[in-house]
């Protein structure tokens, strides 16, 4: 079935005369457009039709020429209330509408007709590029009208609204080169109700008390901040947009909107406690739909593909989890190719279809068939008694190529994981040897269920990542642990509390709750003074008990290790502050399953080149009121001459067991 995603993407950096110009809104549009382009090309038949309304700064010129060389319109009030939604009106049944706005938000005094629904007397607005220069803001009630006008008399159109701007009337603004608030001061001028878009169009509904309200049509609304809060722009990008895209790229496209926003909220709160993304839908059940609605396949990470004059080279290798004989598909084409040889960070491709590609052009490719062992799942004996439910699960299974899971159906097979049916007819996955403990939250959606099973399989695969190297040996490094137990930890003393130090990357570290106090650890890595290595790069992966994977415990600009230089410490952001102490928590919901011990993994990856481990990032799964994995090594040792460039790298792993 052919479908179309109609997208209106708005990014406003250059507000004429504004005391608070922005830097990241055009970049937000570029990054979202890049993601949507790739995501739609991975679908069977989803055409992507975007239009752009941009107000770039001079500094955005190179970004647009390189990454978005297309025509665009000015994001004026007239254009946003006209062309922007005229584009979306083209949608038909089963199509998708997306309106995205990145820029300033503000407020305007509400006319008497709306005061009953506005205790603070203010309506929220989107600030257009000419709002303070002859035009005005687009008011939230008018935005509701434009969506209503777009969708009226249409059935089966999935509509998504994403807004990354302040929804606050607070006049407080703080700005620096790194941190800005996407909030413009209100003009103080009220717009009469008779001048609202939609007035006289049989849109606004009068209530018994004489006030008016707009009807709400069926759409999903994802907002960067609550109505009283400010939305942050940090380091040239919207905090909400960047965290939303990070989540979508790391498994979030398989989540429901509800679960997606829970993950984004947690990610944003790790950077600031004063911004809380929110979601809204008229039909509450719509929040249980996956990103962009039904029939959409989850996003898969992509790799650049170029011709080097002799071979087609994929810029990803064993360090990215790619193995020889895996199969990739080139985005936007029907071309499939096989990884003939996987190097450290590059892979050589082969396949007849590659001849159809233009050798002067760069492509993107994603994995559709993965070499290596997968987790094996099967249906429980009890579930097999319901053939219609089994058929439903098998149908959902067959819709997407599974990279990390095999489904065993043959009689006498012994899968390590079992699909079970709960009393409320939901699906759960358990270990075969622990049938009473579901690994993640139950779901009635078979497609979502299999994607979460894939997440478990991917976690197990990452836990198996191993690489030995003659260049990087464990004795070349000093791993320093500091274990903190039996001490009360809070925001003030977290990085000041002292613990017991020990060195070495031992196979297992045991951390214990003592009394009510959670344990914590610090881990740093440095080059040994007697090491033959002068410098290298180090990154870290942390595999969490709920099948999440963190890849940013060592930031990209902190990866360089120099012999005789300072160590690199693992850490994470809490608000604007980077913490070097990692407190470990056993989720209270484990107690319901009589689980008082979790196993997680720290993997230190060292390399001769700077590392990008972000492809390993994965969001936590939700508990059912969840953990573990098995181990196996990954990586092929090659003795013949390689056609791809060499990369020296190694992995050092420690298992972290926490007991309560």
Task: Round the Cα radius of gyration to an integer and report it.
Answer: 26 Å
Overall pLDDT level: 88
Distance between the termini: 52 Å
Gross morphology? globular
Low-confidence blocks of residues: 168-178, 626-641
Portion in strands: 25-35%
**How many strands, what sense, and barrel or not for the largest sheet?**
6 strands, mixed
Secondary structural class: alpha+beta
| Order of strands across the main sheet | 2-1-3-7-11-14
Counting DSSP H or I runs of 4 or more residues, the number of helices is: 9
Number of strands: 38
Helix proportion of residues, in percent? 10-25%
Write structural notes for this entry.
Helix content is 15%, strand content 29%. The strands form nine sheets. A six-stranded mixed sheet has the order 2-1-3-7-11-14. A hairpin with a 5-residue loop joins strand 9 and strand 10 (212-213). The protein is globular. Residues 168-178 and 626-641 have low confidence and may be disordered.
Which properties best describe this structure?
660 residues; alpha+beta; 6-stranded mixed sheet; 6-stranded antiparallel barrel; 9 helices; 38 strands; 15% helix; globular
């Amino acid at each position: 079935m052919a479908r179309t995603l109609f997208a209106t993407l708005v990014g406003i950096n250059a507000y004429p005369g504004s005391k608070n110009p922005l830097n990241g809104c055009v970049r937000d549009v570029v990054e979202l457009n890049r993601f949507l382009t790739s995501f739609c090309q991975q679908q069977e038949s989803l055409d992507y039709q975007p239009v752009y309304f941009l107000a770039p700064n001079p500094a955005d010129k190179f970004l647009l020429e390189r990454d978005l060389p297309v025509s665009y319109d000015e994001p004026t009030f007239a254009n946003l209330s006209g062309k922007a939604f005229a584009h979306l009106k083209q949608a038909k049944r089963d199509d998708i509408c997306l309106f995205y706005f990145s820029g300033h938000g503000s407020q305007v005094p509400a006319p008497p007709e709306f005061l009953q629904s506005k205790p603070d007397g203010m309506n929220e607005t989107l600030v257009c590029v000419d709002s303070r220069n002859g035009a005005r803001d687009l008011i939230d009630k008018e935005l509701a009208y434009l969506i209503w006008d777009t969708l009226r008399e249409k059935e089966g159109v999935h509509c998504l609204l994403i807004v990354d701007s302040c929804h606050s009337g607070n006049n407080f603004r703080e700005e620096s080169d790194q941190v800005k608030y996407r909030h413009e001061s209100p003009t103080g001028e009220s717009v009469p109700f008779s001048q609202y878009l939609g007035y006289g169009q049989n849109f606004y509904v009068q209530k018994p008390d004489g006030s008016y309200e707009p009807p709400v049509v069926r759409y999903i609304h994802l907002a960067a901040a609550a109505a009283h809060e400010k939305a942050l722009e940090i380091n040239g990008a919207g905090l909400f947009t960047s965290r939303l895209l990070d989540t979508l790229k790391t498994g979030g496209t398989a989540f429901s909107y509800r679960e997606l926003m829970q993950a984004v909220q947690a990610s944003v709160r790790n950077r600031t406690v004063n911004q809380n993304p929110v979601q809204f839908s008229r039909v509450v059940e719509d929040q249980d739909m996956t990103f962009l609605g039904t029939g959409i396949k989850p996003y898969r990470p992509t790799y650049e593909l170029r011709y080097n004059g002799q071979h087609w080279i994929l810029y990803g290798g064993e360090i990215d989890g790619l193995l020889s004989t895996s199969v990739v598909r080139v985005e936007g084409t029907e071309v499939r190719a096989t990884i003939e040889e996987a190097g450290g960070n590059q892979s050589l491709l082969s396949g007849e279809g590659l001849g159809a590609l233009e050798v002067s052009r760069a492509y993107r490719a994603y994995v559709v068939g993965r070499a290596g062992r997968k987790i094996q799942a099967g249906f429980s004996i009890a579930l097999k008694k319901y053939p219609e439910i089994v058929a439903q699960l098998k149908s959902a299974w067959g819709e997407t190529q599974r990279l990390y899971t095999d489904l065993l159906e043959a009689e006498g097979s012994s899968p390590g994981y079992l699909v079970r049916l709960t009393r409320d007819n939901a699906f759960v996955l358990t270990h075969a040897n622990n049938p009473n403990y579901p690994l993640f939250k139950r779901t009635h959606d078979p497609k979502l269920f299999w994607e979460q099973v894939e997440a478990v399989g991917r976690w197990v695969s990452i836990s198996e990542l191993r690489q030995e190297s003659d260049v990087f040996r464990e004795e070349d490094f000093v791993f320093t642990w500091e274990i903190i137990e039996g001490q009360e930890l809070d925001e003030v003393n977290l990085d000041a509390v002292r613990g017991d130090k020990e060195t070495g990357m031992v196979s297992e570290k045991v951390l214990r709750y003592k009394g009510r106090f959670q344990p914590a650890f610090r881990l740093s890595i440095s080059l040994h003074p007697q090491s033959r290595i002068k410098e290298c790069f180090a990154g870290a992966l942390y595999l969490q008990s709920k099948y999440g994977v963190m890849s940013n415990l060592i930031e990209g600009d902190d990866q360089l290790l120099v012999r005789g230089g300072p160590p690199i410490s693992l850490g994470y952001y809490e608000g604007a502050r980077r913490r070097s102490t990692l407190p470990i928590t056993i989720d209270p919901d484990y107690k319901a399953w009589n689980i008082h011990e979790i196993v997680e993994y720290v993997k230190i990856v060292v390399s001769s080149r700077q590392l990008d481990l972000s492809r390993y990032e994965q969001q936590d799964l939700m508990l059912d009121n969840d953990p573990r994995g098995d181990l196996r090594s990954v990586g092929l040792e090659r003795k013949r001459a390689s056609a791809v460039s060499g990369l020296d790298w190694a992995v050092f792993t420690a298992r972290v067991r926490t007991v309560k």
